[in-house]
Amino acid sequence: MTTKACSETRSQMRRYIVQRLLMKGDSAPLTDDDLLFTSGRLDSLDAVELIMSIETDHGINFSEIGFDLTRLDSISAIAGLVEQPSTEPA
Questions:
Q1: How far apart are CA 64 and CA 3, in angstroms?
Q2: Which of 75, 87, 64 shows the shortest CA–CA distance to 35?
Q3: Which residue from 73, 75, 78 is spatially nearest to 42, judged by alpha carbons?
Q4: Distance CA 50, CA 71 (A)
Q5: Are 58 and 21 in contact (CB under 8 A)?
Q6: CA distance 7 to 30
Q7: What is the mean pLDDT of each successive set of 10 residues along the chain, which is 90 residues long?
Q8: Cα gap 27→77, rounded to integer Å
Q9: Between vectors from CA 56 to CA 54 and to CA 61, what angle results, nearest 5°?
Q10: What is the DSSP secondary structure assignment for residue 16, as one 8-state letter?
Q11: Handedness of CA 44, 46, 48, 50 (dihedral sign)
């Protein structure tokens, strides 16, 4: 993935996460490394919605790679998951 594509992916993930947080009334500042789920800012329903979005938009099949919340717990982690060239089974 090119640097420009990586940047666009990260921006897309950021917009999606900020939208989810705003729906919950959370307008606190957010950095790419802030914890989303383990901090309680997002919940299990958000995780399901996020997984569905990633599967649809990026072709990543979580039934093949296994579910690991740490791979979704920050914008950086999500971008890393989406940007990796191939996804290895868990």
A1: 27
A2: 75
A3: 73
A4: 11
A5: no
A6: 17
A7: 75 93 96 96 95 92 88 93 66
A8: 21
A9: 70
A10: H
A11: negative
